[in-house]
Specification:
Layout lengths: L3 H6 L1 H26 L6 H12 L3 H32 L14 H4 L1 H20 L19 H9 L2 H28 L4 H30 L11
Helix pairs in contact: 2-4, 2-8, 2-9, 6-8, 8-9
The structure holds protoporphyrin IX containing FE.
Length: about 230
Amino acid sequence: MPERSSLFTSSVGTKLIMAITGCLLFLFIVIHLLGNLQLYLGQETFNAYGQSLKDLPTPITWGIRITLIVLVGLHSLSAIRLVRINRAAKPNKYKHSHYNKTSYAARTMIYSGLIIGAFVLYHLAHYTFLWTHPEYALWHDGAGRHDIYRMVIAGFRSPIISLFYLIAVGLLCIHLSHGLSSMFQSLGIQRCTRNFLKKSGRIIAWIVFLGYASIPISILLGVVTSEGIPS
Ligand code: HEM
C-alpha cells in the first residue's frame, strides 16, 4: 500500500484521480444531456426545466459550479502530470515509439481535452452568462420565465455556431470513448469484464454524441422551430 503522499503523486494515484474526476464529469455530461433533450418536449417543458435550475438555492448552484471547476482542474492537472511521468519513463520515446499501437483517441486526449475546455468557456459565455448575446436575457415566455427554448433555437440557427458545437461534441465523443476505457482500467476492473466495458464505453460515447449533436442538427433542419411562438 503506497504512502498517502506517494499515492497522490505516483502514476497509479494520478490515474485514479483522473478516473474518479472523469467519472464525475461524465455524470454531469449525461445529466446535462437529459436536461437538454427536453427541448424536444416543447417550449413549456424546456423553460420549466430551465426555471427549476434557476430556482435552486444559490449555495447549491454555486456548490455544483465550484465542484465542476475543481473536477476540471484536478482532471487537467492529472493529465499534465501523467504526460510528464510517461515522458520521464520513456526518454527515448521517438526511438521506440508505440505510436502505431495506440488509438487515435488515446494519442489526442490532451488536445481534445483542451479544445473541449475552450468550448465550455465559449458555451458559458453563449448560454449561461449571455456575454455573446446580451439580448437573450430579455427573452421571456408567457409565464415570465427566461425563454431558453427560443434562446437555444436562435443560437443554433447560425450554421457557424452549430458547426462549432458539432466539432466540440465530436471531440467530446472521441475523448469519452478512450477516457471511459482507461477509467475501467485505472479502477482495477478485471481484463475480461474490462473488454466488455471498453465496448460499452465506446457505445455510450456514441450515444452521448448523437444526443448532443441531434440538437443543433434538428434546429438547422427546421425540425425544431420557434415559429408561431409569440415573442
Ligand atoms: C447541443 C449541446 C448543448 C446545449 C443545447 C446546451 C445547453 C445549455 C444551456 C441552455 C445552458 C444554460 C442553462 C441556464 O443557465 O439556464 C447550459 C449550461 C452549461 N452547459 Fe451546456 N449545452 C450543450 C452542450 C454542453 C456540453 C457538451 C457541455 C460540457 C462538455 C456543457 C456544459 C455546460 C455547463 C458547464 C453549463 C453551465 C451550468 C451552470 O449554470 O453552472 N454543455 N448548456
